[in-house]
Amino acid sequence: MTNGEGGTAVRGREPGGCAGESAGVRGGGWSAVGALAAATFTVVTSEMLPVGLLTPIGRELRVSDGTAGLTLTVTGLVAAVAAPVLTLLVGRRDRRAVLVALMGTLAVANLVAAYAPNAAVLLTARVLVGLGMGGVWAIAAGLAVRLVPGRRVPAATSLIFSGVAAASVLGVPAGTFLGELGGWRSAFVAMAVVCGAVAVTLAVLLPPLPEDRAVRLNGVLRLLRGASVRTGLLLVALLVTGHFAAYTYVRPVLEQVAGARADQIGTLLLAFGLAGLAGNFAAGAGAARAPRAALLVICGVLAGAVLLVPLLGRGAGVPGAAVLVAVWGVAYGGVSVSTQTWLMAAAPGAREAASALFVAVFNGAIALGALLGGRAADGWGAVGVMWLGGALAVGALVTVGVGRAPGK
């Protein structure tokens, strides 16, 4: 095992590591890992819930698709700030207690969103969602090493991140279906209930996770000196911005370009999510062995699928769009676990600090993608959104090809 910038992200505790590493494995096992997967599922579903509900939200609150998309932008921006800030503020506090409190915050936020009388109140609720999401994701992403033996960390990390893909499989489509059946507000009420249940699950299944040392600001900033860390963060920024520039507006795109009906949107998003779940586990295994190769494939496939949507979607209709959405889902399903693996390998002795940077950039990219996609949707229409997303994914492909990989 190497130290410094290179090394591997899938071993046990590193000597001299930052908060989270020095404590070693504290037990909890696979039930605790499963609880963390439920947490990532819940926070990502909470963040992404408006994706399948943009049209009815905009219609009831009398705002454009681009304005409704700000519900993603605001959440992403807050999460981007909350991830590193909360990681610093919680100091040595028990990570179990912190996670439970943050899940409670998400439950309250979703209830506020459910009863929002106007766009301003809805955006306020989404600020709270960003706060809870940024903290949960930053802390949960690096905990596998403390819950299972070193040889099991790659599989445990994939399982934790499977919650991200499962949010697309179950969360977003389920929210879309609930929105069709009982109105978009019912989806937020259901999400509040799920958040409360996950908070209880974390309290019961996680072991105590106090920290021996708190993460310090200078420790986080020191990571940016590593070339492979900088490459990984740039990759996340380009890839996630490109994806969300397109995916935030996937419903209007499918309706306008492929002619999909409202009752078909949930099925198409379900296909995306199922494919993403498969992509998550495939990418997790591949990235543990060769992160650069795995990400070259992911970036290339994602760019191709997004760029082809305006062409094949219009010519082949809903069936053609469904194929492209599924391919897109396979590629994007591997993004979280592969990029996290890259950054953990680039900073093996500072996993929680690296996770904070990862989540900050990831959610900042979500916000930027939603914002840029909104401007493209309002100015260029559905086709412009796809071209923008595809171009940024091509930029990510170039970054992987020429950038510094972990251990190099």
TrEMBL record:
Residues 32-408 form the Major facilitator superfamily (MFS) profile domain. InterPro entries: MFS, MFS_dom, MFS_Efflux_Transporters, MFS_trans_sf. It is found in: Cell membrane. Pfam families: MFS_1. Keywords: Cell membrane, Membrane, Transmembrane, Transmembrane helix. PROSITE patterns: MFS. It is a multi-pass membrane protein. The keyword Transmembrane helix applies. SUPFAM superfamilies: MFS general substrate transporter (SSF103473). The chain crosses the membrane at residues 68-90, 97-116, 128-147, 159-178, 184-206, 227-250, 265-286, 293-312, 318-343, 355-374, 380-402. Its main location: membrane. It comes from the Bacteria. The keyword Cell membrane applies. This is MFS transporter. It comes from Streptomyces sirii.
